[in-house]
Amino acid sequence: YYAGPEVDIWSCGIVLYVLLCGYFPFEDDCMMVLCRKITTGVFKIPRYIGKSVSGLIRKW
């Protein structure tokens, strides 16, 4: 089953985040908490990332 371009774009956003920040946007030792973070889309962008770039990350 292929979920389509939406999943590909989401994955590109994750890769972009990792390249810019050096770590994943969603991390937790507890799998249930990690899944909740991913499904709600709650993550923080470090302050050293500029506003234009952080806007790009949030669009992905």
State the gist of this model:
The chain is built from three helices and no strands. The protein has helices at 5-21, 31-40, 51-59.
- Strand percent estimate: under 5%
Poorly predicted parts: none
User: How many domains, as an integer?
Assistant: 1
What does the radius of gyration come to?
12 Å
Q: Number of DSSP helices?
A: 3
Shape: globular
Q: How many strand units?
A: 0
Largest sheet: none
Structural class: mainly alpha
The ordered string of helix (H) and strand (E) elements is HHH
Distance between the termini: 22 Å
Assembly type of the chains comes to single chain
Average the pLDDT over all residues and give the rounded result: 89
Helix content: 55-70%
What does this entry look like structurally?
The protein has one domain. 60% of the residues lie in helices and 0% in strands. The chain is built from three helices and no strands. The model has no long low-confidence stretch (mean pLDDT 89).
Tell me the layout of helices and strands:
Elements: H1 5-21, H2 31-40, H3 51-59
Main attributes?
mainly alpha
